[in-house]
Amino acid sequence: MSQDDLIERLLDFLRRSPTPWHAAASMAARLEAAGFRRLDEREPWRLSPGERVYVTRNDSSIIALQLPKGELDALRMIGAHTDSPGLRLKPSAAQTSAGWLQLGVETYGGVLLAPWYDRDLGLAGRIHVRHPDGRLEGLLLSVERPVAIIPSLAIHLDRDVNQGRPINAQTQMAPVFLQGGENADLERLLKGWVAEQHGLTEVELLDFELALHDMQPPARIGVAGELIASARLDNLLSCFVGLEALLASDGRQGVVLAPSDHEEVGSASACGAQGPFLGDVLRRVSEQLGGGGEGGFIRLIQASRMISCDNAHALHPNFTDKHDAAHGPALNGGPVIKVNANQRYATNSATAAMFRDLCREAEVPVQTFVTRADMGCGSTIGPITATELGVPTLDVGAPQWAMHSIRETAGARDVEYLTRVLTAFCNRSELA
């Protein structure tokens, strides 16, 4: 594969995916273009060996399946998540102060707040409307221009700001939206954007889930173009790489790609990794193609492997003391196996050995991350999926800087490295 073409596809995917709903829609469009058939959870399924299908839940989580032409005896699963930390509008978002209409927001996930100041912010998400005939419909909305900003307070009015002033998300993070605006203006603007994007002028706005996002486009940066800078690299980079690997695979093995929503807030939802979505789908597949009832399903799961793919903390040149001296992954140094003795990551020596062997086969360098013993460790969908399904799992990811910032940084070569090794995983005949 051409690294330049791969990076351009990644940048395009990032541009098209300001929210989890947009990310799932973007992936669905590529799957359908590649011949995948959409399934509906409310309908009976008729599956055939060799088929390629996908299904969504909440329009923000998606599961794609490549069914083997032969016996369904094992699945190569790749998990990721479609959501990223950020600012979401409150249901009654309009508020006024000092002659400005502002937007009331709440934080979604563990947001790094300071980088949100002085950014050109767009608005995107999902809106539900009622048509004149009474029909309800959900629509995607993405305002393709900056409509808001959170201005910093001048240093002259806060001389101690560089000494580490805390940020109050309730009182100091409301974006300014419209000068002289009133509460009714927000609904009027939303209806105008719905009309502009969907041609619907007679609908009633019922509810919305909208998020602010950075309008600065993703870019390849660095003197040699060795870096990628973008919003939502955590974890849309993994969603993209998993999709690329699935589409590039030879089609002989059973493969599952499962990017889910709500990882950043704990995964406990109907469409999150702690919910029943993946298990529901796999049981229906096993019933039709695997046979053997619950016992057959358990045999299938134990013969399968899950790679939970979520970005890893790269060694930061300005903060090298934040890493264990022997476990500081480098950008462009290859995918990172993430290990934690307290099961914050699902990796064990058996699953790590399989991944190291895959990297050897794909001629890809591999790194390891363990957090410092005196620091807390984040987690992923890996331990959750392993707990819910019982599938042998490991956690890996591309290294990055500035995780949970409005703009994050990763290595350009790592995109190709991770794609190559995940493609090898999709094609691997023996998983033990």
UniProtKB/TrEMBL annotation:
Known EC number: 3.4.11.-
Protein name as it appears in the record: M18 family aminopeptidase
Organism: Halomonas alkalicola
Cofactor: Zn(2+)
UniProt keyword annotations, A-Z: Aminopeptidase, Hydrolase, Metal-binding, Metalloprotease, Protease, Zinc
GO molecular function: aminopeptidase activity
Database matches in PANTHER family: ASPARTYL AMINOPEPTIDASE
Family: Belongs to the peptidase M18 family.
Domain of life: Bacteria
InterPro entries referenced in this protein's UniProt entry, alphabetically: Peptidase_M18, Peptidase_M18_dom2
NCBIfam families per record: PRK02813.1
UniProt keyword tRNA-binding, yes or no: no
Organism classification: Bacteria, Pseudomonadati, Pseudomonadota, Gammaproteobacteria, Oceanospirillales
Class of enzymatic activity (EC top level): hydrolase
SUPFAM superfamilies: Aminopeptidase/glucanase lid domain (SSF101821), Zn-dependent exopeptidases (SSF53187)
